[in-house]
Structure formats: C-alpha cells, structure tokens
Design goal:
The chain is of the alpha/beta class. The chain has three domains: 156 residues, Methylthiotransferase, N-terminal domain (Rossmann fold, 3-Layer(aba) Sandwich), CATH 3.40.50.12160; 233 residues, tm_1862 like domain (pyruvate-formate lyase- activating enzyme, Alpha-Beta Horseshoe); 58 residues, Nucleic acid-binding proteins (OB fold (Dihydrolipoamide Acetyltransferase, E2P)). The strands form six sheets. Strands 2-1-3-4-5-6 form a six-stranded parallel beta sheet, with helices on both faces. Strands 17-18-19-21-20 form a five-stranded mixed beta barrel. A three-stranded parallel beta sheet has the order 7-10-13, with helices on both faces. α2 links the parallel β1 and β2. α13 packs parallel to α15. The protein is globular. The structure holds S-adenosyl-L-homocysteine (SAH), iron/sulfur cluster and FE3-S4 cluster. S-adenosyl-L-homocysteine (SAH) binds next to β15.
C-alpha cells in the first residue's frame, strides 16, 4: 500500500500494531461504571473545543459519570468556553447566570469552566464568578476527576497548566451529539503563530502534533463504527509534523492526509484550518490524488490589504495569498475555498477595506466567516496598536462584506445547478422529515427528497435543481 514511500510503510506497520491498543481504549469507555452521577456539558467556540468536550466526556465516563442533556439532572455542569471575541465571553457569562439558578435549586451541584476562557482568566475567574467550583484549562483535562474530588471537599479546583506535550492521543473520545456519520479528530494542539489580534496562542499554548498512528487508528475505529467522514482538526494543520521517537521517521501533513485517506476509499477526509503561509503543493497534490479527500480548503485571509496583513502579523501579503488561490484552482480545479475575515482592524482605511472586498471577488469564496475586530487583552495588537475604528464603522464595513459574500456564494451555488454531485447523507433535513441532507466534496449542504433504500452514512448522486446563497436543492439520480 505504501510501497513507494518507505516512511509511510514503516508507519503503517506501527498503525496496525496500535489499532489493538485503540480497541482496548474503546473497551474501557464502554466498561465505564455508572454509579448514577451525571454530567452536562455545553461547548462554545471552534470545532477544537467541541472535539475537546468529547475527550472530557471520555475522561468523566472513566470516572463514573454519565452524560446527560438535561441540565436539571446534572451533578456536574461544565461549560467549555471560547475567548476569541468579547462577545464569546459575554455568552459564557450569561450561561453562568442560568447555571446559578440550577445550582440554587440543587445545592451540591458543581459548576466547572473549561477551555480558553478558563485559561485566559485563571484564578481571576473564581473571584469574578462565585458559583464556579472548577477552572480547568485545555491541557489539564486528565486532572478533572482529581479536581472534582477537591471541589466535593469544599475547595475550589483549578488547573490551568499549559503543556508542551499533551495531545490526549491515547484517549478515545466519547462522541457527543453525534450523527454517527461525521466525526472530528484532533491532530494537533496549540498554535505557534502570533497573529497580533489572536488570543489562541495564550489560551492553547505551544503547537504540538499528535502521534500519527493514533490518528489513523481513531479514523479506522470510526469507520468500523459506521462513520463515513472525518475532519482533521488543528489551528494550523499544514504545520503538522510528527516524528516517531523510536525510529526518527517523520510525517508531514500531506503524508498524514495520505495515511488517513488510505484507511478506506469510502471514508471522506476533511481538514481545518489551513494557514496560507504553510499550505504546500504537496498537500494540494495529495488532495488531487485521492477522491476521498474533499475538494474544499478553508483558507482564512483575514484582510485583503498587505499593510493590514503585516500589522496582523499574518506573514503573507495580498500577492502571496492571491498566488496561493491561483495555485489551488490550478491543481484542484473544482476546489471550493472558504475564508475568515476581520473588518475594522486597527487603523484600517476605507481603501484598505475595499481591498478586502475585492479579495472576496478574486478568490470566489464559497462562504466566509466574517467578524469585526474585537480587541483581546494581552495580545500583540492590544499592546501595540490603538483599536481606533469606531464600532459604527466596523459594523458598516462588516455589513458590506457580508452582503458581497452572500452575492458571491449565491453565484457560486447557481453554477452548481444542473450538475450532479456525490453526496454523503448525514440525516434528515432541518425543515422536513421527508428530505435528507448531506454534503458534496466542496462542503456544500444539499437537501433532497428521501428515496427508498438510502439511509444516513450512504453515498448517493444528487442532481441540483435549485440554489440559494446557503443551500442547494436537488434529487437523487442514477
Ligand atoms: N487558526 C485559525 C483561526 C482560529 S480563530 C486561522 O489562523 O485561520 C477563528 C477566526 O476568528 C480567525 O480566523 C479570525 O478571523 C477570527 N478572530 C480571531 N481573533 C479575532 C479578534 N480578536 N477579533 C475578531 N475576530 C477574530
Ligand atoms: Fe490565531 Fe493566527 Fe494561530 Fe490562527 S494561526 S490560531 S489566527 S494565532
Ligand atoms: Fe475560541 Fe479557544 Fe477555539 S478561543 S476559537 S475556543 S481555540
């Protein structure tokens, strides 16, 4: 299978060995003793946080806790938090008010704050929010059972230690709220980039890559359980690099992609997020080579203007980014590209804002996540630059960007009318139990009437008849 690649051949052997290990962890999760205690967990922020909540769930199951979706039934209420923008933190504070009410009705209930806000605020959180019993940073989840013990004894439990090694590679996530078809796999943690606006390097610590064998083992296990799509997660997946400590063999992100793609041709592979400065030709060729690696790249630009990009410390400029986009369309002509955009960054002029608009047109993003700049304490930008664009202007620029992106998305989707796509069925559509929903390789959501013999987890071919800026509609063919 890996004949032409000696490194991968060696790694494959190891994967086969470590699969047996993975089976052991699954047994452990299944064998979790249930002594009637329940935990409730709510997650905010990026996919990595949702993925972390599944690791937390697994650790708690081992400690005898069962998950519940009913807040009032929980002995332990956890909130996995995000600090990326001020609004994300406000949302968490609002939820804590609700948890406070539940706690009053059920004295003895423990409330724990996990994730990025816990890491950012540390012990300060315990002073600000009296109801909180536990504050646990993203690298300290193994310590949860111990911290719960401390809190049960009436003390506050806090661990916000950031690790250089922790990847939770050996923990088999307990899939929460899963559709049984698509799952996330964390492949790395932390971030070594210092984008000046961003709090993530402070809340998640240094970048580290997870053992490649354990990633392939997790993908294999998911496939055997009926999953048909995995999304490989990291803040900057293109800088994935893992060295086998025993043999010195190395795996790059392109090699990892190839390994996961070879788990099974019916397992679709997605990944997020790519950094424009790090995505290589090798990655593009690997995507092009494997039908089951989706033709979709999330490639956040942040701004279309070189001066702003330099202030943001993104380490690429407008031209560099445009060349990347050209290269992607050259190597993978039917690739969809999406983006993240920040408007109203420190000192951004109207002309510079116009360059972000023109970038949306140039790159033909299928969709974008768009935000106005929110200053985060402690970041490079907060220390060096003035947050000088009035909120009103930030919001107006954001509206202009959202309007243009909606037009481009609409055009992008219109071009799909009449085309037939291979779709992985994820489940019932939101609006009607008569329709299925699923995605094509380009990550577009497609809704279509159910047909005899098809069920979630199946692939089918759908011809597109209708398109809005958000969804495609079609019918099963062939
Ligand atoms: N690692 C990813 C992004 C993670 S954060 C990357 O480098 O692309 C997700 C998005 O939130 C970022 O891409 C950015 O667009 C946005 N974001 C981050 N910090 C922000 C801030 N201070 N204000 C507004 N948006 C921000
Ligand atoms: Fe933040 Fe930049 Fe790292 Fe993304 S690459 S997480 S934006 S510092
Ligand atoms: Fe938010 Fe932390 Fe993710 S700040 S975006 S949850 S890495």
């Amino acid at each position: 299978m890996y004949d032409n690649n000696p490194t991968l051949a060696g790694i494959q052997k190891k994967v086969d060995e470590s699969r047996q290990g993975e089976a052991f962890y699954q047994e452990q999760a299944r064998g979790a003793k249930a002594d009637g205690r329940h935990f409730y967990i709510e997650s905010y922020g990026c996919q990595m946080n949702f993925s972390d909540s599944e690791i937390v769930a697994s650790i708690l199951a081992e400690a005898g806790y069962q998950p519940t979706r009913i807040l009032e039934e929980a002995d332990l209420i956890l909130i996995n938090t995000c600090s990326i923008r001020e609004k994300a933190e406000e949302t968490v504070r609002k939820r804590l008010r609700i948890f406070d009410k539940v706690k009053r009705q059920r004295p003895g209930t423990l409330v724990g704050v996990l994730g990025c806000m816990a890491e950012r605020l540390k012990a300060q959180f315990l002073e600000e929010e009296k109801l909180v019993d536990l504050v646990v940073g993203p690298d300290a989840y193994r310590d949860l059972p111990n911290l719960i013990g401390t809190a049960e004894d009436g003390d506050k439990g806090i661990n916000v230690f950031l690790s250089r090694e922790e990847t939770y590679a050996d923990i088999s996530p307990l899939r929460l709220d899963s559709n049984g078809v698509t799952g996330f796999i964390s492949i790395m943690r932390g971030c070594d980039n210092m984008c000046s606006f961003c709090v993530v390097p402070f809340t998640r610590g240094r970048e580290r890559s997870r053992n490649a064998f354990s990633i392939v083992a997790e993908a294999t296990d998911l496939f055997s359980k009926g999953y048909r799509e995995v999304t490989l997660l990291g803040q900057n997946v293109d800088s994935y690099k893992w060295e086998n400590p025993e043999t010195g063999e190395r795996a790059t992100f392109a090699q990892l992609l190839e390994m996961v793609a070879q788990v099974n041709p019916n397992l679709r592979i997605r990944f997020s997020t790519s950094h424009p400065k790090d995505i290589t030709d090798e990655v593009l060729f690997t995507i092009a080579k494997y039908e089951n690696i989706c033709n979709y790249i999330h490639l956040p630009v942040q701004s279309g203007n070189s001066r702003i990009l330099s202030l943001m410390n993104r380490t690429y400029d407008r031209e560099w980014y445009m060349n990347k986009v050209r290269r992607i369309y050259e190597v993978i002509p039917d690739c969809a590209i999406s983006s993240d955009i920040i408007t109203g960054f420190c000192s951004e002029t109207e002309e510079e804002h116009q360059e972000t608009l023109s970038m949306i047109e140039f790159a033909r993003y299928s969709m974008s996540y768009m935000f106005f700049y929110s200053e985060r304490p402690g970041t490079l930008a907060a220390r060096k630059y003035e947050d000088d664009i009035p909120l009103k202007v930030k919001k107006r620029r954001l509206q202009e960007i959202i309007r243009l992106q909606a037009q481009i998305s609409q055009q992008h989707n219109q071009q799909d009318i009449g085309q037939t796509f291979k779709v992985l069925i994820e489940g019932d559509s939101k609006r009607s139990g008569e329709d299925f929903k699923g995605r094509n390789s380009q990550n577009k959501m497609i809704v279509f009437p159910k047909t005899e013999g098809l069920e979630p987890g199946d692939y089918c071919y759908v011809k597109i008849n209708e398109a809005t800026s958000a969804t495609l509609k079609g019918e099963v063919v062939g």
